[in-house]
Design goal:
77 residues, mainly alpha, 5 helices
């Protein structure tokens, strides 16, 4: 559950992905946290992110729901 807004949540097994045996927070979840800061380096991370279609759709939906409309538009690219 997202600490800033409980409307954004995913099951634990969906929150992580494993690369070479190391579990990481999924990028769409990390980017949701960065939207609150809205710094140039965070926008650069969003632009560079290689999200899978489901992850991108989830991120755009959550950004819109939480009022980060400019980030939602950037996430479409």
């Amino acid at each position: 559950m997202f600490k800033r807004d409980a409307r954004a949540h995913v099951p634990w097994e969906r929150a992580l992905h494993t690369v070479n045996g190391i579990p990481y927070l999924r990028p769409e979840l990390a980017l949701l946290h960065k939207a609150y800061l809205d710094r140039p380096k965070d926008r650069a991370d969003l632009a560079a992110a290689r999200l899978d279609p489901d992850g991108r759709a989830w991120l755009m939906q959550m950004l819109e729901k939480l009022g980060h409309h400019s980030w939602a538009q950037l996430a479409q690219r």
